[in-house]
Amino acid sequence: MGAATATTTLITMAGLSTQQQAQLQHILHDPLIGIVGTQDEFRQRLIEKEEVPESQVDEAILEYRRFLGLALVGYAELGMFSPIIDKVWHLHILCTKDYLAFCQEAFGRFVHHCPNFSVAQRDPGGFDHFRTIYEALYGHHLPSVWSSDQNSCKKHCDVANCSECKGA
Fold it and tell me: Which of 4, 116, 135, 161 is the most exposed, fewest CB within 10 Å of its CB?
């Protein structure tokens, strides 16, 4: 599937093929790490080295998985709107053997990480678009780890409400 735009038909769980459903289950439930470390070591490193608050680390890992799930079903050009979840992705990438194996199993290819400095060009719908497609696929509102008070861009942004952000 190609990249989604703000005018693309929303994808729901019911609209997924059997293969997409199986791949999504892999992304959501199978170990991220296993070749060079353990899930517990990955979690601990997020807390100690990546400075993800212990109270948010499990939610951040789950939301990273859900973000990858959106890419799987056709929303590959989405911007990353959570610095905490992006830290999970960065650490996963650093575990190169595990990341490659995970991508091959889930996507059949390597999933590249692009810096978020050009998110407005990749996802012109911005955060509202992201929230809309997330909620359509997963059937619930975005968890707090995606919310504006978790978003460090507030330090560099003059937009009053993150839902108005266009990723610029």
Answer: 161
